[in-house]
Write a structure and sequence with these properties.
The chain contains two helices and eight strands; from the N terminus they run αβββαβββββ. The chain has helices at about 1-20, 65-70, and strands at about 25-30, 40-45, 50-60, 75-80, 85-95, 100-105, 110-115, 125-130. Strands 1-2-3-4-5-6-7-8 form an eight-stranded antiparallel barrel. Strand 6 (about 100-105) and strand 7 (about 110-115) form a beta hairpin.
C-alpha cells in the first residue's frame, strides 16, 4: 500500500511539473532589461525529440536588414524539463554572438524568467523577464 501511495504522489508531482512547463510553450515578447521595451518575439516549442527550443520569429522596431536576417534563428536549444522549469540547454544572444547556459521558468505573475549564464550553475550571468505575446 505504501508503494501505491508513493507512486500516486510521484505521478501527481510529475503531472504538476509538466503542466507548469506546458505554460512556457508558445510565443513570448522579449523585453530589454535596460529600457523595459519589447525587442523581439520568440516562439518556444517542444520538438519531437522531447527537447525544448525557441525560435526568433519577429524583431520589433528595426528596419535593419541584418536584424531581419536573424528571423528563424534558434536562440533556445536543447532544454529539458526539470521540476517545472527548462534547464540543461543553451541560450544564444545574436546581438553579442555568444551562447550561454540557460534556465527558463515562470514567475508567479506569469512572466517568463530567462537566465543565461557563463557557468552551469547560473551564478555568473544575467536574467531577463519576458511577457506572453498575443501573436501566433
Amino acid at each position: 500500500m505504501k508503494k501505491f501511495i508513493f507512486g500516486c504522489i510521484l505521478a501527481i508531482t510529475a503531472w504538476v511539473a509538466n503542466a507548469q512547463v506546458d505554460k512556457i510553450l508558445g510565443p513570448w515578447t522579449a523585453i530589454d532589461p535596460d529600457t523595459d521595451k519589447p525587442y523581439a518575439t520568440i516562439l518556444i516549442y517542444k520538438s519531437s525529440n522531447g527537447l525544448y527550443y525557441g525560435k526568433l520569429t519577429e524583431i520589433l522596431d528595426s528596419d535593419d536588414p541584418a536584424d531581419q536576417k536573424l528571423i528563424g534563428t534558434l536562440i533556445i536549444r536543447d532544454m529539458k524539463e526539470d521540476d517545472g522549469m527548462l534547464k540543461g540547454g543553451s541560450i544564444y544572444d545574436p546581438e553579442e554572438n555568444k551562447t550561454y547556459h540557460g534556465k527558463i521558468s515562470l514567475t508567479k505573475d506569469g512572466r517568463l524568467e530567462m537566465r543565461g549564464s557563463l557557468d552551469r550553475w547560473g551564478l555568473l550571468g544575467a536574467t531577463e523577464y519576458w511577457k506572453r505575446s498575443n501573436k501566433k
